[in-house]
Amino acid sequence: MDNVFQGVFYLFLIMILVKLSQFTYRVLRERRYMKELAQSGMPYIDKMDGRQFEFYLQALFQQLGNKIQVTPSSGDFGADLVMKGKEKIVIQAKRYSAKNRVSLSAVQEVYAAKAYYKAKQAWVVTNSYFTKQAKELAAACDVTLVDRADLQKLINEVNPVFKAREIFENITPEPRKCPKCGQDLVVRDGNGTRFLGCSAFPECRHTEKINKQ
């Protein structure tokens, strides 16, 4: 009887130790993830609008020794940036919210831009992830996809001089009009949070986030 009791006790003890080790692993993994997230500046990238994200990527890739140009906001033929190093690379930048995935249209556009700019490679870079269809088309068209995890890893490896926070706070978002009164939206600061507010304030009190998507 004592042997049976001891066996049950040891089995119970082993189960507790396994649960504790699993819990400790999850805590350590979560801490490491949060540290890497903070180092990459991803929380500030998530707050950017498309224009700010383009300028951030320009600063990031320039530090790798490439010459990179941000294309005009209109008439870019599907490329937001053109990078010249050993090879010419066209890049489409997609600053999305975490719940939105980049669709295959981004792959189609950058593939067309590759031909227009006579580039050797075409990339789509996002702070989010890609749909299954986008991945399938990219594989067929030889388009490189850089998703959130890839971008975070690259940023931490490069450790860029220009941090995401600096770009977010110093690069003016793309001009927008107030949907209520038609006046310009301007960057405002409230309790340490940057947002867009109507220039007609206080007559118009419309506000919106800098990152629209």
What keyword list fits this structure?
alpha/beta; Trna Endonuclease, Chain: A, domain 1; single chain; 3 domains; 213 residues; extended; three-stranded antiparallel sheet; 7 helices; five-stranded mixed sheet
- Radius of gyration of CA atoms, rounded to a whole number: 23 Å
Could you say how many structural domains there are in total? Answer: 3
Mean pLDDT: 84
Low-confidence stretches: 33-38
**CATH-defined fold name of the largest domain:** Trna Endonuclease, Chain: A, domain 1
Q: Let me know the largest β-sheet.
A: 5 strands, mixed
Give the neighbour order of strands across the main sheet.
Answer: 1-2-3-4-5
The level-1 CATH class of the largest domain: Alpha Beta
Helix coverage percent: 40-55%
The end-to-end distance, rounded to whole angstroms, is 66 Å
How many helical elements? 7
> What's the CATH architecture of the largest domain?
3-Layer(aba) Sandwich
Please identify the structural class as seen in this structure.
alpha/beta
**Shape, per Cα inertia axes:** extended
Share in β-strands: 15-25%
Could you give the count of β-strands? Answer: 8
The SSE order reads HHHEEEHEHEHHEEE
